[in-house]
Design a protein that fits this description.
α2 crosses α3. The chain has nine helices and eight strands. By secondary structure, it is an alpha+beta fold. The radius of gyration is 22 Å and the shape is elongated. The strands form two sheets. A six-stranded antiparallel sheet has the order 3-8-4-5-6-7. It has a two-stranded antiparallel sheet with strand order 1-2.
């Protein structure tokens, strides 16, 4: 099992390697504020786990396995930051500090659910898959129904508004009626019937079925 401290090393190696490939032990030591001896000892452990390539006096780089793992933790950090700032209205500094702690304990399943609220997708392939399988609520036919896949918006106030009235990813939704060609629409979600203007409806993506 990889510890939180080991995950910190992997993330920091990823950050430093993105600026120049192989990371020097001295640079990692200075960046993390730990002794060179402690860094060397940890790198030996990570190398034994197949997460880094480490040669004494030469530096360290992530293996393919280590890179995938580090990027997964980095994504969880980004998801938590966005959730804390966009949904809970936490300050940027506090959100970063909280995310540094929570990234180590957030499960993959919970991270995926949160990502659908704050619109933090995975790689390009994942984004294309989501686009292909979903339709925004404003474009659905009257009587159409499905499950809310994700919210797509960079405006935190609009995200909070949608969540507060029930448009939460994972919930069933049905488009009941259109009051005019340009909206608003009437939709059923969470046991309630809600009038939603077209601007907000366009931010809710549904997997029909």
């Amino acid at each position: 099992m990889i510890t939180g401290n080991q995950e910190d090393y992997l993330i920091n190696i990823l950050r430093l390697s993105e600026k120049g490939g192989v990371v020097k032990t001295s640079g990692l030591s200075k960046f993390m504020g730990v002794s060179p001896a402690s860094v060397s000892e940890m790198l030996k452990i990570l190398a034994e786990q197949g997460l880094v390539n480490y040669r004494k006096y030469k530096g360290v780089s992530l293996t393919e396995k280590g890179d995938v793992y580090a990027r997964g933790i980095k994504r969880k950090h980004k998801i938590m930051e966005r959730f804390l700032t966009d949904v809970l209205d936490v300050s940027d500094i506090e959100a970063h500090e909280e995310a540094c702690r929570m990234e180590h304990v957030l499960s993959d399943g919970s991270a995926e659910k949160l990502s659908r609220i704050v619109n933090v997708q995975g790689d390009l392939g994942d984004q294309e898959l989501v686009k292909a399988q979903t339709l925004s609520l404003d474009r659905m036919e009257t009587g159409g129904e499905g499950v809310i896949s994700h919210l797509k918006c960079d405006d935190s106030a609009k995200i909070r508004r949608l969540l507060s009235i029930g448009f939460v990813p994972g919930r069933k939704v049905r488009l009941d009626n259109r009051l005019s060609s340009k909206g608003p629409i009437i939709a059923s979600v969470g046991g309630s019937s809600i009038a939603l203007d077209m601007d907000l409806a366009s931010l809710v993506f549904v997997e029909e079925g």
